[in-house]
């Protein structure tokens, strides 16, 4: 196993483990959706507010 593979194993992209980053990304996504007239799902609003949430299975 290479050093890069070990680092990749240790890193995670799960919002539950990085709540501040997930909330910031959700706020940006909400702003883009509002600007383009798209619906903003409740799970995305919850993430932006820092509430624990699980995205729909088709997005996980």
Q: Percentage of helical residues? A: 55-70%
Beta-strand percent range? under 5%
Low-confidence blocks of residues: none
> Mean pLDDT, nearest integer?
80
Main β-sheet description:
none
Give the helix tally. 3
Order of helices and strands: HHH
Summarize the structure.
The protein has 60 residues and is mostly helical.
Notable traits:
60 residues; mainly alpha; 3 helices; 55% helix; extended
Note down, in words, how this protein is organized.
This protein has 60 residues and is an all-alpha fold. It has helices at 3-10, 19-36, 42-48. The longest helix has 18 residues, at 19-36.
Layout: helices, strands, pairs:
Blueprint lengths: L2 H8 L8 H18 L5 H7 L12
Helix pairs in contact: 2-3
């Amino acid at each position: 196993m290479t050093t890069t593979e070990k680092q990749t194993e240790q890193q995670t992209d799960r919002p539950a483990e990085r709540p501040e980053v997930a909330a910031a990304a959700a706020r940006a996504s909400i702003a883009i959706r509002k600007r383009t007239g798209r619906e903003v799902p409740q799970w995305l609003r919850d993430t932006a507010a820092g509430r624990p949430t699980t995205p729909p299975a088709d997005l996980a």
